[in-house]
User: What shape does this take?
Amino acid sequence: EDKVVQSPLSLVVHEGDTVTLNCSYEVTNFRSLLWYKQEKKAPTFLFMLTSSGIEKKSGRLSSILDKKELFSILNITATQTGDSAVYLCAVEPGNNNDMRFGAGTRLTVKP
Amino acid sequence: NAGVMQNPRHLVRRRGQEARLRCSPMKGHSHVYWYRQLPEEGLKFMVYLQKENIIDESGMPKERFSAEFPKEGPSILRIQQVVRGDSAAYFCASSPYQEDYNEQFFGPGTRLTVL
Assistant: This one.
């Protein structure tokens, strides 16, 4: 059965710290991996990764995928209190099955 | 503790028929969210419900779509007179409480195909 595991489940840091969130997966016929930032109402799309070894970057956030080892990491540098949220990882199999979500990592950034 | 359950997992309807998608939240959760996944667009918020109450339906199309979360039983997303453009994966998430940011647990989704 398809599975997505995120770690850690929760993380508390101080402003300015760098954090790394992990997502490992087991899916049939992998198509893509997506990262979301979940706060308030709906998850906000961050990155979609399809190719191994290519880093996606947006400001202080970056993510990379390792298709051989079946994992992805999401890095946040110089964290701010506004980065506090639950970060979701989801994997889209390539056999027309639907996305599988991890349980999320709850990040708390303290001033 | 079972996770969020959605059924059916796959639903095929012909144009003009009705589609009913069910979501059973995790035990102890009283808040349910419905999302639609479109290709290359990630998740799109549709509606947020509490037991017997619609909190926010700003993402719901004005016509043909409705949602409920009765006191007993699952939450239901209902699409009347389906059209081909309704074909998508519909995800439900549940949450135990309301905070500044909700921790939502997602179900496996229902893939609706309209022929």
User: Anything to note?
Assistant: The longest strand of chain A covers residues 30-38.
